[in-house]
Design goal:
With 168 residues, the chain is mostly helical. The protein is 80% helix and 0% strand. The chain has six helices and no strands. α1 crosses α3. One of its GO terms (biological process) is microtubule-based movement.
Length: 168
């Protein structure tokens, strides 16, 4: 029973730490007003990396052993653990999926950033790709994500035009 209690304490610390990571990941991002669309891809790549590392930790032999001991002891901490494990898996899948879809836009970010208003020829393809992401992505198709993406695309267009006008 004493071993079980010690292991439950360890799992409760993990639950608290993982819960904190999840809370922080849901907080509103603070970004510069003029940040471009490639920042969106970088953000999701960073999240994917963080959550994948967390998943690797959760699936490690050490953690599995502790969880199986607590399962045998019918510990009450496992309910919370399973919920968090599920939340981490969802967050990792969301980040991976969003990275995959945002990579389809990556080829437009270069031409969009070139210092020439000729970028306009890329806009129809860019918009149809954004539309495709909105229609088929299971995670990225929220108004919050789309607003963030459109804001960054618009910022990039404005910055490109400013650069062109100042250098011309």
């Amino acid at each position: 029973a004493e071993v079980t209690e010690k292991l439950e304490e360890v799992v409760m610390i993990w639950i608290k730490q993982i819960g904190q990571v999840l809370v922080e990941s849901k907080q509103i991002r603070r970004e510069a007003d003029d940040v471009g669309p490639s920042a969106e891809l970088e953000y999701w790549k960073s999240r994917m990396s963080s959550f994948n590392s967390l998943l690797e930790e959760i699936k490690s032999t050490k953690v599995k052993k502790i969880i199986s001991i607590l399962q045998a002891a019918r510990s009450k901490t496992l309910k919370q653990w399973k919920e968090l494990d599920g939340s981490i898996t969802i967050a990792a899948n969301e980040a991976k999926d969003n990275v995959r879809y945002l990579y389809t836009l990556d080829k437009f970010f270069g031409p969009l950033a070139n210092a020439s208003p000729v970028m306009m020829e890329h806009i129809p393809s860019l918009m149809s790709t954004v539309c495709m992401i909105y229609c088929i992505s299971p995670y990225y198709n929220t108004s919050e994500h789309m607003t963030s993406l459109f804001l960054k695309i618009t910022n990039q267009m404005i910055n490109t035009c400013k650069t062109y006008l100042c250098e011309g």
